[in-house]
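Section 5.1 Outputs to date
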Amino acid sequence: MHLARTTALALAGLLTLVTPVPAAAAAPAAPRLPAPTGSHAVGVTSLHLKDASRGDPWVPAAKARELMVSLWYPAAGTRGRHQAPYVTPKESELLIKDAELPVAPDTLSKVRTNAFTDAVPAGRNRSLPLVVLSPGLGSPRSSLTSLAEDLASRGNVVVGIDHTYESVATAFPDGRVTTCVACENKDPDFGQQVVRSRAADVSFVLDQLTGAKPKWRGAALIDRSRIGMAGQSVGGASSIAAMARDKRIRAGVNLDGTTFAPIPERGLARPFLFMGSPTMHSPGGKDGSWGRDWKQLTGWKRWLVVTGAEHASFTDVPLLAEQLGIDLGFALTGARSVEITRAYVAAFFARHLTGKPQPLLDKPSARYPEVRIGG
């Protein structure tokens, strides 16, 4: 099946070949994300960025590449601030229509988050690592909000990128809402095209946040020498492509994504984490790209397989689906998959961006028996 069709369907980009079945219990009126585990309150803001140096790869009539990004960060205080919306009502409508979900069109816009819009950033200048998050094809940046909020609560600045025309719905400040033009692309080398385009997006966003005239008022807090990237599905594959392109990214994570663009022959010596579902991404599993790339990773590396996980388990999708009364048939609950993803991704970046020892990454854990070390 073509990449766009295998990653762009259902809630926030979830592929399911089975019609969701309503659970017996009634769904809560307002699903919510689990509280972050770090010690900091979390603020969030959105930026509209325009790269006039290149056209849009999917819509030739668009002469500049425009992006919407969200920044989650440690907040000095949240008094007088409102909890941030998960998505806009229009984004919710398009996502739910695309997934053919049996819920009201504005349901996802009512999801309760833990971050506060435009709260004052906290921290010393050049003190906070920066982590880039890239979602799966068809998915909005909000699909990784649980992970983003948790990383921010632990003292990181997190930037989530909506790769325009690669999401079912991206709302811009002027009222435009773009859809997933790339999801209809049938070029045989589409996978390589999309990860290379995303790598360019990431480099541009880093320029906008760490350059001479940064676009975010809290940019002075970012330590430019401590930048990492993680992504799910094609977003995870893009982590490798972005690291190969941009040496500013010191460490990367691929959450269950086929790596369409191979690591260059010279190899990749910076730390990297593979974390995936057993069907596709066990060593010797259906997706051979990880085994190929494992040999080209010449620095610190780990390959983790999560028993009971499915492709969307590393996103907010199963967590929200369960609260909406939709049974996806996953063996691992949404709450547990979020807990595991948060714990291991946070440990990886704590180790490689801050230098703090993380025993969780070195041996099996009694707390997380679902996770086994492969490779």
